[in-house]
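Repro:
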Amino acid sequence: MKKIVIIGGGIAGLAAAYRVQEEISKGVPYECVLLEGAEHFGGKISTNRFDGFIVERGPDSFISQKPWAIELCKKIGLADSLIGTNPDYPKTYVYTGKRMVTMPDGLSLMIPTKFLPFAFSPLFSWPGKIRMGMDLFIPKKADDADESLESFVLRRLGNEALKKMAEPMLAGIYASDPAKMSINSTFPMFVQTERKYRSLILGMLAQKRRAGNNSAPTPQKRSPFSLFMTLKNGLGEMVDTLIAQSPDIRFRASTQVREVVNREGWKVTLDNGEVLAADAVICSAPAKTSARLIDNAAPGVSALLDRIQYVSTATVSIAYKKEGFSHPLNGFGFVIPRAENRRILACTWTSSKFPQRVPEGYVMLRCFVGGANREDLAEQDEDAIAAMARQELKEIMGIDREPVFCKVYHNRKSNVQYHVGHAELVASIQKELQTVPGLFLAGSAYTGIGIPDCVLNGTRAMESAFAFLSQESKAAK
């Protein structure tokens, strides 16, 4: 019987474990254990449920355009639990010049696809709008070399698009510095659009026309999913269900791994001295943790993994009684350009975005703190972060009342950074891994940070492990 050890119980590790369970259910004789150092599984996915509130520590949703998370939810029986964002409040705001400005309709991430809403939007100055429109005439990049998000946006759309859109929105997703983050690894669709159409605006309009031509006017063909999806009982429901649907996998929480070596087969040594033998090992822990664990077994891989950087963030979830609450919360929330010099990055109006997450008579907001450019703010103690977030909401939104609760969640050094050249670094890691048969990597550090990306990444890592084990079995015969 082939033995598989998975190190790391985030969503990538759990997806890998579930893939083993599928094979075991077909009668394939695998033995699999998943080791997680923390007390709970799920990594950054962690849902707190109390008094009718559903509060997320990490991500609160996942993108539906990447299908792998939705497909997994359907496989494990959570299709009926999938819910989208509230269609009644589709707006998102940018806090600029000490006021909330609506993002213009037809803005695809940062690219205008409708003329009138963009032309009359107060978000951009007329010189800024003209500069963004120059994308229609600017030639495409002469080579395929990676560049930073900042370089790409300045080149194509100009400074205002960078400061008011790309930096708070796109770099905000990765909690990154736009001057360092790789456009190829974070938003490759922009690079591909430029290569194919020369102009981002022309490319987006072409894609919009194609989508319109392919869609039937009948409601039956409309997507049942909004852009962002979640689960009724929080994303922790996916974690709990994956474990429950994998009865043949041994899940061990609060289990620290000391070292992984390859001496007459793979050996995983735990902090308590226990040694687990394995035919294949999948490291789905953060890159720097994996680097430390495999340093003796695969020093070349370890050195490359150690080059991947992480930054700290924090979230602050705050609830208030709805009665007498002055702000209408008529949207999903707002982002804040760095030029505004505020101490929070953004704020989601959770009770508007996902009304199912609060009991009747309450509202809930979630602030984001830290990231590559203000890491120090996220590394303060909880009381300091809570006081800071409340003061920011008072100054930005005029909220001057006692909350029902204020919960701070640290994510210390847990946000991976895809710096310029990241794809080349990952390719080097994969090449070096070929010299270490039986060792595989999964997780957010490589080909995507979102939940769908991690589901796909963990599943593919396990498929590679199956292929390796099959070859080993054939060679032994």
